[in-house]
Design a protein that fits this description.
4 helices, mainly beta, 30 strands, 11% helix
């Protein structure tokens, strides 16, 4: 019986080996081979890349559900787009179907965004490096990892370097986890914009113009930005000169912003180390502080329900710049406080002269962190501001926000 089984087992192993997909190798036909593999992939397939440097001249696109694209490590499998032909898309990789995973490789020097995923349910970036190797430059692509209008987004263990807008960006999306990543030498390190339900934790954001941004912007289909937890991150020395393309919204971001909350609601900030950001370690501002006109009638420009507690602040505020920096210097001279609030709120929500807790701001248990309400609106109007440095009125009560969970993700 055993002798009869041996040939059968051996044949089965051979068939299994023959059916296993071979890794794509570097070579002159890699553009065609890779795009063919992405087009012919079936749901559940893995498109594998061997170690090596892969030269691409056009955007790669994927329009198949539940496909994994995998290398053997971000320093071993390197997909280069430095010779990308103008007019061929601009992205390194463009994905339009969900259940997508990108892991264990690097994407370098794309003309536009390194990886854009749009309108999907389920996307994972794991152990991916995106980089523009010439260093910070306004001609670099805007975004590194760029999922937008999606849900169930996981970005973990990745590195983003040199983006002329945001290294790691999630926009107009829901149910998001951004954890254990490194963002450096970008205009913005990590940005969550017009999104609902995000956990941003365990990340290092350093040497960017702005470290971590939780934003809401007008004139976008998704109008909400709420329920974001920012915790256990290191947001350190984000003082790089802004190298964004002139005229873009992000080009107005002054260097030296650590964590910036703008026009967003229901944000809990805790357990972070925020240090040595020269304009301010943490800023809470309404959209009108940008001095940009708002034509979107459905846009709420105020920060509301902000809970900042149990963080560690040090350094910071030593060289405030930009319009915000001028306001800080007008009050403090050169050295500003750790936490800066522009003082904007919705007057329609005031009850008996006070803003109810549900719309207010709580700042508690942050050691000896200093604070100011600049009353920036008065400053901008040429009036004498009512500057407040006492935290007594910023003790609103909030319950902890819920943990974000993605099915199958621990």
């Amino acid at each position: 019986m055993f002798r009869r089984l041996v040939p059968l087992i051996f044949a089965t192993v051979l068939v299994s080996c023959e059916q296993a997909p071979q890794a794509i190798q570097p070579g002159p036909n890699v553009q065609r081979e890779t795009q063919r593999a992405l087009i012919t992939a079936k749901p559940g397939d893995t498109v594998r890349f061997a170690a090596g440097v892969f030269e691409f001249s056009k955007t790669l696109s994927l329009d198949v559900e539940n496909v994994t694209v995998s290398g053997v490590g971000p320093d071993k499998t390197i997909m280069k787009f430095r010779d990308q032909v103008t007019g061929t898309g601009g992205e390194g990789l463009l994905v339009t179907k969900g259940g997508f995973t990108l892991q264990d490789l690097a994407i370098e020097d794309s003309q536009g965004d390194a990886v854009k995923v749009t309108g999907v349910d389920g996307v994972t970036f794991r152990n991916v490096r995106v980089e523009w190797t010439r260093g910070p430059n306004p001609e670099n692509g805007a975004y590194g990892l760029y999922p937008v209008e999606s849900r169930n987004v996981l970005i973990e263990g990745c590195t983003a370097i040199g983006a002329s807008d945001a290294g790691i960006y999630v926009g107009q999306s829901e149910n998001i986890i951004v954890r254990n990543n490194v963002a450096k030498m970008n205009v913005t390190g990590i940005e969550v914009e017009n999104s609902i339900g995000a956990d941003v934790y365990g990340n290092l954001s350093t040497d960017n113009t702005g470290g971590v941004l939780v934003f809401k912007l007008p004139n976008l289909p998704k109008k909400e930005s709420r329920q974001c937890r920012v915790f256990d991150n290191r947001i350190i020395a984000n003082n790089r000169e802004n190298f964004a393309k002139p005229g873009t919204l992000v080009s107005g971001l002054p260097p030296g912003g650590g964590l910036i909350l703008m026009a967003t609601d229901e944000v809990e900030v805790f357990g972070n180390e925020i240090a040595d950001n020269d304009t301010a370690n943490l800023t809470i501002i309404g959209f009108r502080s940008t001095r940009r006109k708002v034509k979107d009638k459905d846009f709420d420009p105020y920060c509301e329900a902000i809970h900042i507690h149990d963080n560690t602040f040090s350094g910071g505020g030593t060289n405030p710049v930009g319009d915000l920096g001028k306001a800080i210097k007008a009050i403090f001279g050169k050295n500003g406080p750790d936490i800066v609030y522009d003082g904007s709120f919705d007057p329609k929500k005031v009850v008996d002269g006070w803003l109810p807790d549900e719309y207010g701001i709580s700042i508690r248990n942050n050691g000896d962190a200093s604070f100011v309400n600049l009353d920036l609106a008065a400053m901008m109007a040429g009036e004498k501001p009512n500057v407040v440095m006492d935290l007594a009125d910023y003790q609103a009560h909030f319950d902890p926000l819920p943990e974000i969970r993605i099915e199958g993700v621990r």
